Amino acid sequence: MCDVNVFIVTNGVEEKVLENVDLIEEVAGGMRLVNIFGEERTLSAKMVRYDNSGKRMVFQTI
To answer: What pairs with residue 41 in β-bridges?
Structure first.
């Protein structure tokens, strides 16, 4: 599987937001995340790093 875990950095603190993310798309007001179980989150953030081998994507609040 190539699903990633998404983290967000706020004030220098990294926090896991959602696991097994399968879809990431830009929407009005931020980024929409959907995982393999259908759970959704929308972040007001920008992507700062994607690590394929570590299965991690990091966003920063805007």
So the answer is: 33
Instruction: Show the 3-state SS of 18-52.
Output: EEEEEEEEEECCEEEEEECCCCEEEECEEEEEEEC
Single-letter residue type at 62:
I
| pLDDT surpasses 90 at 62 | no
* Strands ordered across the beta sheet of 30-35: 40-43, 30-35, 13-27, 4-10, 56-61, 45-51
Number of domains forming the structure of the chain: 1
Count Cβ atoms below 10 Å from residue 8 Cβ, excluding itself: 21
pLDDT tens digits, 7-22? 999 999 999 999 999 9
28: containing domain:
4-61
